[in-house]
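We append the chain.
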Amino acid sequence: MPSVLSLAIVGGVAAVATFLLVPLTARAAVRLGASREPDAHHIHDTPTPAAGGLAMLVGVVVAVAVAPAVGGFSGAVDTPGEILGGVAAVAMVLAVGFYDDIRDLSPPAKAASVAAAGVVLHLSGVSIAVFRVPFWDLVFLSQEWSAVITVLWVLGMANAVNLIDGLDGLAAGIVAIASGAFLLYALRLADQGVIDEANPGALWAVVALGVCVGFLPHNLYPARVFMGDGGALLLGVLMAAATISVGGRSTVEFSGQAFFFYAPLVIPLVILGVPVVDTLFAIVRRAVGRRGFSVADREHLHHRLMRLGHGHRRAVLVLWLWTALLSAFVLFPTYTGRGDAIVPVGIAALALGLFTIFHPRFGYDTLEVDEEELDRLKKL
């Protein structure tokens, strides 16, 4: 497996390339009309270029190209099919998302394009081959079921990152923390012989971390540029590739890997708990309210935090801290070999805390109700 120095070099290359290219892509976005107007999902006052994803894509390509020369990644790059498939998948969703930022692609077409990227990952070998059924046994998936579950996983990851991208620096910061935590998790499993040196999970995780670090200085409040749908989908697919490579192909039980009903694929869901919870709330809220899933509203976790009185920067910081805390729950038993039994209880406590703090009221828009109530009081 790659050394810390090798990982730092590849991640640093991704970060520097992304950082240097963001201003250029921002100017190109203005000329192409890829600017995001203030809307119900994003909180900003003026049109802002949404082309950070273009710089991220270059960062991904440069970092992957440098990896063979750095050393330590020979096992992964010796089977280039998975690497090329991952790059092709992120390029596909970046193109679709960037087009959506310019032309407004229909939600079914965008979902189909992300699903196509999932198919590309599966065909290149980045696919979920096994998983543990709670309280039962290890299941080896057929090719058909492997393809279906892989595509669903990619769709879920991509949409989770896209939905949480509503405040300056929020999505990039969350993915940076999550990818860093998952990188540590993958390295720990490699050290214990649970995954082999050909597994590209660590490479995808460090590349995702690098592009986020390079993009964040341009995206912190007040943001000069957004990542756009293309950037959010790109990060989602990178995280999907990393988590599939590590959690979807390991058959060995390991402390920290098996802590939650012996289901390794639950671990990335815990690390990415903030966007996952936000996505689940959005699905239920819109289903109860009989609204389309793609209809934007201001009921996401970050919107609720701001209504509770947190400012823009503090709301982002709170959700970053939640992500760091969830990551700690995963890494503690993985590195110590202890604490498996308390982790499910801790996760339940965190979920209850989220529910209590954000008190989701499904089925209606809180802002609209408040305005109606205010009009009624005025008439009285």
